[in-house]
Amino acid sequence: MLLGMTAAVAAVVAVAGWMRAGRLARKLDALTQSYWELRYDFTRLRSQVARLDPETAEPVAPPAAPPADSVAFISLASMKSTTKKG
Predict the structure, then answer these.
(1) C-alpha to C-alpha distance for 69 and 86, rounded to whole angstroms
(2) How deeply is 31 buried, as exposed, middle or buried, from its count of CB atoms within 10 A (0-12, 13-18, 19+)?
(3) Residues 50, 57 contacting (CB under 8 angstroms)
(4) Residues 6 or more apart whose Cβ sits within 8 Å of residue 72
(5) pLDDT tens sequence for the chain (86 residues)
């Protein structure tokens, strides 16, 4: 009897959790959609303002180049040990 009630309560909790996760996923999708729409509108409006008044537009700085002596890429093959242990 106790095992059956525990299983029933666990099933109800699992279904409630599943439903809540579905609602949260839909909310997250809606928020993500709103975010990207706002980013698109902001960029579009900023470009319109820049076209109307180019003197007040902020100059776009080129991205900073990394220092010449820094290593930007290390292949995984160079990190593997050449000796076999075993």
Answers:
(1) 38
(2) exposed
(3) yes
(4) 66
(5) 899 999 999 999 999 999 999 999 999 999 999 999 999 999 999 999 888 887 765 656 666 666 666 666 667 777 776 565 54
What CA–CA distance (Å, rounded) separates 25 from 14?
Answer: 16
Please give the full DSSP string across 13-71, using - where no structure is assigned.
HHHHHHHHHHHHHHHHHHHHHHHHHHHHHHHHHHHHHHHH-TTTSPPPPPPPPPPTTS-
What whole-number distance in Å separates Cα of residue 46 and Cα of residue 58? 10
Tokens of 26: 């839909």
Give the integer Cα–Cα distance in Å for 49 and 56.
9
pLDDT at res. 72: 62
Q: Which residue from 41, 40, 37 is spatially nearest to 29, judged by alpha carbons?
A: 37
